[in-house]
Sequence to fold (467 residues):
Amino acid sequence: MTVKKHFLTRRSFITASSALATLPLFHIPVARALNVSAAADIRSFNTNNDWIKAFNDAFSQNEVVEVPKGVICDNINTGIIIPAGKTLKISGTLAGNGRGRFALQDGCKVIGDGGSMKNICLDIRGSDCVIKGVTMSGYGPVAQIFIGGKDQRVMRNLQIDDLTITEANYGILRQGFHNQCDGVKITNGRFTRLQGDAIEWNVAINDRNILISDHVIDTINCTNGKINWGIGIGLAGSTYDNGYPEDQAVKNFVVANITGSNCRQLVHVENGKHFIIRNVKATNITPEFSKQAGIDNATVAIYGCDNFIIEDVEMTNSAGMLIGYGVIKGNYLSIPQNFRLNDIRLDNSSLPYKLRGLQISSGNAQSFVSITNLTLKRASLELHNKPQHLFMRNINVMQDADRGPALSLNFDLRKDVRGKFMARDDTLLSLANINAVNEKGQRSVDIDRVDQHRVNVSGLNFSLPGR
Fold:
């Protein structure tokens, strides 16, 4: 992955979003009432077989507009503004060629009731918007739901729930460089057979209070040659900086209760701070998917992040975790610091080839890393550099002897440009209950460390055969 210019992250700022940004915005007081029983039938306004005019007329006269079951509104190939406070109920079908979109203003709702949308984008431009129960598909739009635009405003209290997106490019795409989202809940989604990311929260340096939870993601495989496509859930700040500035990071978010399978990378964060990833279940996260996308193969990939927690992650027949530097034009920046990994499980016992286990780079003075309750089967734990304090407890790792050591601690990186991030003075290495063996139960540990007189070791208790 390569870092973009103009203070963007390594993920490409989607150029097609500029077309979405040209839609006008209407700032009308929010109307919150949802009276579905009073919905207007869209057919009553389609007098000239012009569905676009029909929607504009219907919304100008009614609070709720419905596409009834069995009705097909086709040729939705341009932008339609849903006025503030109004609701679109979809029981039938809406279809376009990929250029059509509904733009939601303050207080708008799009409610699915057994209907579907194909090749139409929902473009969120206001606060207090709700999208619920909607089924979407189509490779026409870059994203089924777009959140962005160039208007410098705050969009509050966005709710997206019970969403189904299949056979599409991106599911939800947020481009957050120009504006702010404060209070977002994206819950209970089903994302299948996508080319791009299920949820991409990109250049989101202004956003806060983001919850992404309870999603099922299955089969993301970028075959169209696009670089950096093909991730389950990705969040990114702006350019890397060794000072870890708050105003350049994506922050204050939770990703939880994610079930993923059949993709190259499931959860991705770059230049992030103050976040939690928890309760992730992954199967078959392998390099067989998105082969030309240029992204690492990992269930969880973390780049250049500070102050985060990852816990309760269960991986089967999958690449494990990559926690590493930010990289700009070959320069290593922002080594991960101040984080905790807890209750991590990876079982590749039945996988016929070797994949990444846990590869962790960490460092810097006045920082810590805690790794507790880790179980790896037929996989390796590899650490590079060292923070001021490194705590490891209850570690059980088994790796086949012909695939390398089960546990590698590489603390001597002075000849590596990345070694400048390693804390050397007054450091603490605290290890307890470490069991690292090969398939025969033999000790399988590789430790590369110098300047031992500068390292205070406490609580050391290797339970390794032959020690």
Summary: The CA atoms of residues 332 and 418 lie 6 Å apart. The chain has one domain: 17-31+68-458.
